[in-house]
Amino acid sequence: MTAMTQYPAGRARAEIDLGALRANVRTLRACSPGAQLMAVVKADAYGHGAVPCARAAQEAGAAWIGTATPHEALALRAAGIGGPMMCWLWTPGGPWREAIEADIDVSVSGTWALREVVEAARGAGLTARIQLKADTGLGRNGCQPADWPELVHAALAAPEVTVTGLWSHLACADEPGHPSIAAQLSVFQEMTAFAEKAGITPEVRHIANSPATLTLPESHFDLVRTGIAMYGISPAPELGTARELGLRPVMTLSASVALAKQVPAGHGVSYGHHYVTKSETTLGLVPLGYADGIPRHASGRGPVLVGGKVRTAAGRIAMDQFVVDLEGDRVEPGDRAVLFGPGDHGEPTAEDWARAADTIGYEIVTRIGSRVPRVYVNECSDDDE
Ligand SMILES: Cc1ncc(COP(=O)(O)O)c(C=O)c1O
Question: Rounded to whole angstroms, how far apart are CA atoms 66 and 45?
Answer without folding.
Answer: 10
